[in-house]
Each structure stands twice: as C-alpha cells, then as structure tokens.
Amino acid sequence: MVMKQDKTDSRSTTKKRVFLEYVLEAVLAISLVLAFTTVVLLIAGAPPLQSYVHIFMGSLGSWIRFTHVIKAWIPLVLCSCGLLYTFRIGLWNIGVEGQVVMGAIFTTALMRMGTGTGYPSLVLLLSCLAGMTGGALWALGAGYLRTKGGVHEIFAGLGLNFVAQGMVLWLIFGPWKRAGIASMSGTETFERSLWLPTIETLRISPAGIGIALGALLITAWMLRYTNVGLRLKAVGNNAQAAYLFGLRPGKYMLIAMILAGSFAGLAGSMQVTGVYHRLIPAISSNYGYLSLLVVMLANFNVWITPLVALFFACLNVGSIQLPMVLQLDSSLSGVMQGTMVLAALAVHFIRSRLRAAYTGGT
Amino acid sequence: MISQGARHVVLELQDIHRYFGTVQANRGIDLTVKPGRIHGILGENGAGKSTLMKILAGYLPMTRGRILLDGTEVRYASPNEASSLGIGMLYQDPMDFPMLSVIENFMIGQVSGVASAGETYRRKFSELVQEFDFTLRPDTPVHLLTIGERQQLEILRLLSIGARVLILDEPTTGISTTQKEILFSALKKLAAEGRSVILVSHKLEDVDALCDTVTVLQDGRVSGAMDQPFDSTTLLSMMFGAPPESSRHIHRPTSQTILRLDNVSAAGGRTGLSGCSIQVRRGEVVGLAGLEGSGQGVLLRVAAGLLRPRKGTIHLDNHNMTHQGYHAYRKAGAAFLPASRLEEGLIRGLTITEHCALQQQGRSFLVDWHEAHAGARKKIAGFQVMGSPGSVVESLSGGNQQRLLLAFLPERPRLLLLENPTRGLDLESVHWVWNHLDAYCEQGTSIVFSSSELDEILLAADRVLVFFEGRIIKDVLASRTNVMELGRALAGRV
Amino acid sequence: MRKGSLISFVTGVFLLAVACIVPGSVQGSDKPFVFGLLLVGPYNDHGYSQAHYEGGEYVQKKVPGTRMIYIDKVNPADRPGVTIVQLVDDMVEKGAQLIIANSDDMKDGIREAALQHPKIHFVHISGDDVLTGKAPGNLVNVFGRMEYGKMMAGFAAAMTTQTGKIGYLGPLINEETRRLVSSAYLGARYAWETVLKKDPKDLTFQVTWIGFWFNIPGVTADPTQVSHNFFNSGYDVVISGIDTTEALVVARQKVREGRKAWAIPYDYIGAGAGAPEVFLGVPYFNWGPSYVDLVNKSRAGTWKPAWIWLGPDWKDINNPDTSTIGFKKGDALSETAARALDAFIADLGSGTVQLFKGPLYYQDGSVFLKDGEIATDKQIWYMEQLLQGVLGQSSAR
Q1: Closest approach of C338 to chain A, Cα-based (Å)
Q2: CA C235, CA C255: separation in Å to the nearest integer?
Q3: Measured at the alpha carbon of residue B83, what is the angle toward residues B81 and B87, in degrees to the nearest 5?
Q4: Using an 8 Å Cβ cutoff, are C86 and C103 in contact?
Q5: The domain that contains C194 carries what CATH number?
Q6: Residue range of the domain that includes C101
Q7: Which residue of chain A comes nearest to C23, CA vs CA?
Q8: Is the pTM of this model over 0.90?
Q9: Model-level ipTM above the cut of 0.85
C-alpha cells in the first residue's frame, strides 16, 4: 500500500516551479528597486522618467561609458562570487568590504616591491595572488572569531572592516606617503607598466573581464560539481543535520570564508591595478557592501548575479548624470543606494513568504 | 462568555483540490462538520489530512473547491482571516513565542491599542483555566511547558479569539496520559457547548475514545466514513485496505557488552541526566520509556557523543569514549537518529540524491553524481520511499522522511541510538520500520530507542528502562512487565 | 532562459522610459563652446570649489556662446567608484572642448585623461606637470599666487591677536600648503615685529593638519575639533587653510560663549557671510578673468602648454575683472589694523616690502634663503619645509 511507485516525474515539475519562482522574484526585485527609487526621485523633486533615461544613457549610451560600467562590474562580480560561497553556508559575510580593502593593501605592497624590477607581468600576477591572500586572511579572521570565538560574523566583519580601513589610512598617511607629502589623496601612482593591461582603442582590459568571467565559471562549477559546494549548502541549510552526517560545520565555514575573502581580495587587486593605479582611502568604492545587495537581489543564483551586478554598475556609472545634467543634489545617489537596501530586504521578506506558501506537507 | 456571536455553525467543504506541482494532495474532498460534534479525520501519512486542514485553517490556498459556513461560501487567505471567521487550528508543533510567559502568549494577537488591558486578560485566562481543569500557570515561560501544556495554551488562545471550529492535528503525540485525559475532557466540553471539533489522527484509540463520527482519507480522497460505534477492522481497511498485523519481536542478545555507561550525569533537556548506569549487550534492543523530556533524549545524545557528560564514564566496545566527540563515536560504530527529522536529521532544500552524495564522505574533490543518483534510486526502492531522487526532502511526508533517515543509517553499525523512531508514523510504517530494525539486530547491532508509546516499547524491546526526572527508576525485561506497571513507573511510582 | 527574461525586462523598462520622453533639449545649430569643471568639493561650499564654480559662471556671462557643465564632489569619499577619467570621458561626450580640474588631488587622473583625449584642452589648477615635464601638450597648469593673500591673512591675524597665538588650520601637507603656511607666517611676523614692534618670542604660530582639503568623516581629522582645540588652548585667531568654513563657525561659537575669537577663512570672497563678529577678512581666488583668458585661447586655437601663476592686480586687488587674488576685509578687523593692512598691501604691490627675502631658515635650521637673497618662483613653489618659527609638521613623519 505504502509502496506506491512515484510515476510522475516530480523532478521536472520541481524545476518548472523553481523556474517560475525565479522569474517572478526577479521581476519583483527589479520592480521594487525601480519603485523605491522612483519614490525617492519624486521626493527629491526630480523627474523620474527623465532621470532613468539619463542613467540609462549615461551608462549604456556609448561604448566609452559602457567600458566604465565594465570597470565597476568586474569588482562587483568578484565580490559577489565570493559572497555566493558564504551565503551558501548561511554566513553573512559583511566583512567583504574589509576583505576588498585588505586585498588592495596586499596588492599595493607587492606592487611597491615590484616597481622597477622589469618583470611587470610577473609583478601583476603576484600582486593579484597577494591580494587574494590578503582578502582570504582577513576573511579567515572573521571566520575564526565566528567558529572559535562565537562572535557573530556580522560583528566580526564590521570590526575588521574598520581595522582594514584604519590600516589604509595609516599606510597612506604614514609609511606609504608620497615623498614630502601627507595627504589623504592616496599613494604615488604606479608606473604605467604596472597597470592592468588595457586595449587602448577599446578601452577595456581583457584580463579584468577574463578574471571576472573566470570567477563566475569557477564559482558555478564549485557549487554544482564539487563536494565542497555540496557540503557548504548542506551545512548552510542545516548545520545540525550536516554534523550528524559526519561533516564539521566549522571547517566548512572557514573554507567558505577563505573562498569569499580570496575573491574579494582579488576585487581589491583589480581596483588597485586596473582602476586607481594606486592606493586611496576609498579603494573599495563600497563594492563590497554593494555586492551583498547584488547577491541578495540575484536570489543567491550564480547566473543571475552578473546581470544584477551589471544593473548596479550601470546605476553607479549612470547616476553621475543626475547631478551633472539635472543638477540634483549629489547625495541623492547615496539615498538611492539606501533604498536599494530596503528593496532588497523587502524582496527577501516577500520571498520567504512565498516559500512558506509553497512548502507545507500533504 | 468567551466568544462573540453564535457558536453553532455548520461547516461544509466541497470538492477541495490541492496540487503541489503535479502532486495531488487533495483531489476532490467533500466533508460536512456539524456543530456540537467531534469529527475525526483518519488516514495514513501522506493521505492528505494535513493539507486539507491547512487549507481549512487558511495556511494554504486551495487549488479548487468551496468552503461554506452555514450554507454561505467564505473565502480567506490567511490564518488570521480564518480565525476571524471562527476557524482555528492547533498545529502539530505549537507556534508560540518560547521566551515569553504563558499570559503574554495568550495576549498575543488579541491586544489591540492600549496595553493596560493586562488585568482583564489575566482574569479571562484564569476563568478559562478553571473551566477546563487545565494545569497552566500564567507566569511560566512558555519554553518550560510540556507539549501538553502548550496545547492547552493554544486551545485557550483560540477560544478567547472566538474559535467556533477547532482543528487539532495529532494532538496526543508526545503528551502524557494525564494530559491526554485533560485534553479529551476539554474537547468534549467544547463540543457540548456547540462548537465543532475536528481531530486529525492516525491513532484508532484516540478516535475511538473521542469522536462522534469519522471520515477516512486515502490518497487524497475520502475513502469512507463511520459514526459511533466504530469498528476498527472496517476503519483500518478504509485506511490501508487490510489491517496490519503486529507480533512481538524476538531478538537473541549475546553476553558481549557494546555500550556501558557508569554513573553518567549530563545537562540538557528539561531534567538533565543524573547518575545513570546501563549496559547494552550485542544484539539487544533497549526501549527507553518516560514522560517527554525525562532524560531519555539526553542519554541517547550522550551515548552518541553529541553531549559531553558532566560526570561518569562511557565505554563503547570496551574503549573509553568519555572524552571523545561525535565524530569518534561515529567512527566507532555508533549511529544516532534524531526525533526531529527536518530539524536535525535531514537537510531542507537538499534532494535525496544530494543527501546520498553527502553520505559518500569521499575524499575526492568532485561529487560523483552518477553514484549518488544510483544510491538514491537504490535507497528509494529499498526503503519504499515515495519520492524521486530529485525530490527535496521537505516535500516528502513524515513517514517517508523517516524511511529516508533510516536509509542513511550506516550498513553495519555497532549501536543504533534512535530517538522516537516511529513518532507520527502510521501503523503500517511503524510495522515496516521495526521489521527493518530487526534485521539490524540479526546481524548483531544493538539498538537503544526512546518512544512515548508503551505498546511499541513492549512489542519491540527486549529490555525497558523507565526514566523519571532524569533518573532511571526501572530496568526490566519487556517480557516480565506490562503497560499498567510501566504506566505507574512513568508517573514515578515503582 | 531566466537570464534572458531578466535582461529583456530590464531593457524593456529602460526602453519604455526612453520612448516616453525625449531627453534633454535638442541643441540648436549654433553650437556653443562647452567647457567642463571638475570640482573637488560641493559647488556651494563657501570655499574653494564655489570660487571655481563662480569663475565658470563669470565666463558664461562675459563670453557669449559658452556653456559650462560641471560636476562637484569629485573625490572618492563622496563618489565611491567614480574616476576622473570616467568623468572626463563623459564631459567629452557632452561636447566639452576644455576641461578644468580644480584640485591637486586630480593630478594623476587628469594627466591620464589628457593623454586619452589629445584634442581636448585640459587645465589642472594647482598642478606642476608642465614644470616637471610630465604633462602632455594639451595640458596647462594654472594657479594663483595665494602667497600674497596668505601674507595679508597672517598680517591681519597678527594685528588682531591679543594672546600672540595664531593657529593655522592646515589641510594636507604638500608643496602648496607648505608655502601658504609659510607665507601666512611671514605676514604675521612682519606685522608683529615691524608694525607692532613686539618681541618675536611672544608670537606663536602653530599649524595643525587634518589630512585633506575638507572634512571626510573617519578619514581626516575633524576640522571643527581642531578649531576648538586651538581656541581652547589660548589661540585667539585661526587662519583656515582648508576649503570649508569650520574655523569661522567655531570662532563664532566661542564669541557667543563670551570668549575672544577671530577667524580668517579661505578661498571664496563670500566665505565670511553670516559671521561678522569674528570675520577678519578672507584671501580669495577670483577665477573669472583667468578662465575667460583660457576659454578664449582654446577657442582661438592658440593653446600652448604653459605653467601659469597669476598674482593680484596691485592697482586694485579686489577688481573682479582683473585680479586673480584678492583680500576682502572683514567687519571684525579694527580700524587701525585695516589701515595698517592697506599700507602693507601697497608696500607689497610696490615691492617695498619683500617677505621672501633672506635670511630665512627652514624648521630644522638649514638655510632656505641666504642673507639678502630673494626667492625665485621655483624656490617658493618647491619649499621643502616650513619656515623656522612655525610650529607643526613640515612633512609627513
């Protein structure tokens, strides 16, 4: 009686359902972001439609503008890839910001050592590896505080963000200052050979794009086909049960943090080698925090992530048009990012409500 | 005094359908619940009882169908709206706020506006408690209540917000006999006042003791109905087609000691565990009886290495394991099966195949999906799980989840530690589970299990340990005792 | 598939928006000359950036057929992720033919942008790329001889102080700020010793650096706090070297508490507005005339790489059409001090008073100018340390 065979292929139905959910949620997320932003624009007295057009044209209106979008997209994608691992295991790696900064510091350190050695490619490669190491170490710090010290990763991460930011300021104002100068405007610019190679006619860096796409592919592959990916998910969904299955949740939390930190650190390397060509106080451009939003709005899906990242990169680049063309107060883009957080949280909430409605026993 | 408006209401469900994807949980159910009656809903796990009740209580939208109150169609989309129509559900796991006190939980959902109404609620609360002979005290924090007391609280809360139709889903699971009696008399009183009570259960004795009428579900449809007096054989055949047989299990323990606890004390649960000494022999089945949370769970977890003892020593196969962790116990051949399947045992969001892949425990970097899929198929077939390799575990019914958990037990363990292994299962599944576990004993595995059903313990175990307030107060061979004796021990009278 | 739907949704929304309205006003056939302004601070900061912004407005007023586009708060703290190159690209797409970057901070970015847009003319205010030879042919450096303005500020401060303690609210340390602090000190010392005939030992001149041109919370020292510290430790005049007006605000607060306090803001002619009781005056930039000149050169095709250092029009340093550097006297400056200041300005203009004249020593005692030696522009521009007599850091430790 009880052994009725399941004749329907419930796998394909699940897939179909999941697909519908994703479409629904993606539409919902973007609409909410747009709705919230529109409200903010209206409050600020800006014409919303015109603003959107300016943002759109300002980001995708020409190839040159698009190259700037790509420049913001690369670190966003890298950070987001890293966060996919930590979200997978249920960690709120808010320390990603500090991991970017640490990556930038380690990269700069190596670039300083490598200046004038005559092996620019090698120095660049080692700098990126150093950046990954820096980010990973910083993430490991938060991971250890969480697994061994019982400090929640949000607090550990925020604390380490402050420390990393403090280190940047100290380095720029102290040991790495420009000769005779004490300014917060950054360290001396690196020689041109140490800039991330760029195709001048196209104004894009194939290496940067390659690294971002590579990160996406590796992340997708890691999460889908490797034991690490599976176990991250298992621990994230139910640490207690995973423990009973013989896994050590603490170990996988550290692995997730190391992976996340490495990608975030690499984003820091890109900021130093590809964008600013020096270390500045705001080296992270807040891309760490922004990527938390990206991943949440992408519903923690590795293939939707680059698209949402592109959306945010466009917004970042395009919103400069608002003060420039519409003379809107420039603090508006900050307010807009704040509303994104609200939208992301709202989507998160609605999503869990949807899930609750779908699941439930027979 | 309690509710506003008429208490008498006729509830009709017409042609209720509910699909989850292509899974048809309810396929055209008609049901009429009359006021003043206790209406039983019987059915094995997966028959569609819970879905139907969740629809009725507003937790789930239905795919198709109509709900009528006194002949008028009503529509609602949330538990709140349902309760404003007078329909309230007492859920299997009471959903309250564990850190708040009883009275605070009671007030939640009713207090609107001014906060000064506290005294009024306190008075209302104590009136209700007296009326039903409940054992609740207003200032106890909810997390200290027993499951039975939590149910009492839920019932009071539903009544105070004017429930006219009360739905109870498996209310007797995990509560003591005394509490069961209190519950039943309260329900009878409510019915006598003209309310309708719907009781979902798979226990014939509950239905027999309480219900005026019974509707049996099978495979998403109504398979039969019956009024008092009930005939068990007919009901069982409506549920399963044929009545399951039960017989006493025989094992042949050897003299070799597998697990030895000497004077072990540990913290945890309601009472902890104090000064416990036991020996479990190879091939022996030991049943742990006791009121919920009297130390059985702590003992199982200590023996699995999940809790560290505060005092005493633990030996597994004559190795001192006292200071080892779970992973060492696991390596030594001890396997633990938790009672809460989706909380501790299985991983929500992961498919059966993914669980199999997790179990591979390979050192390899890549997952062998092919092997995992094959493993899933094998387990599904071997353990008669209703689901496919790609089903996420939370989509399975309780019984199937349990079968799956059993499927993930190691093949040749030395010691199985099972916490309420048949909780919430239908009789057929219980029977199946024990057949499966007996096979383990055949190959020399020892089993220690806890259960709230004395009948089950007497049927399955060779030896019974009775727990009371964290101590073992009785250690007796199953063949030399009976339900009456064990029941007295449960209450602390040896 | 779900990727596709997301893309098409996003694009759809944007395209819908595009279809709904035609952006902006279509340019007439009479194409105006567009010049772009990159401002490091807010365009209305009552300081450095506002002075530039008003210079741009002056051009629009005086030269028909010109149009300004600008973007303010161009610094990584206010606009994370936005780079100079990106902004220049954008301005060029908007038709800008001349782009003026107003901050020292933009040095590297504007050089990179100039290399990328060889046909566009670039001005880097305060930079020295042309002097050092790093500048491409389309980049010009312009700056004002604020040294004179700072001398006047120092002079007014010394004429006013009752405690003999003058504070200088410094931004970051570089060549520019070193020479400005030194100039202010020279002006103060001249007033103290030569006009007031007081003992040089009784004059204290202290500089405290915050780390940037304006307050960036968490990054720089807080200029409000620094100003408070000055007034609380016996300093009664604070000369501001930063782009914003914290010194003035704090001084006013102190006066309301019944203390004696004065302040000299910086950069912008209107910086003293609203605080007459503490406002001694302001040395300011008047960019209008030089901007007009640059725009005319760019339009006429007579653009040449140059390093331009513009001083006051000594005939009338406050002439808005001719003088790049001015000093506006404030209400709190006493009658006597104002008269002395006028005489001092006249002497500076005539060359009677020459403050960068040896013997002058650096902080560490080494010689800056030998006895009787008059500093060249380059010597002033590239001062290595603060002058002896100034308390505070000469360079980063």
Answers
A1: 35
A2: 13
A3: 120
A4: no
A5: 3.40.50.2300
A6: 30-144+288-310
A7: A50
A8: no
A9: no
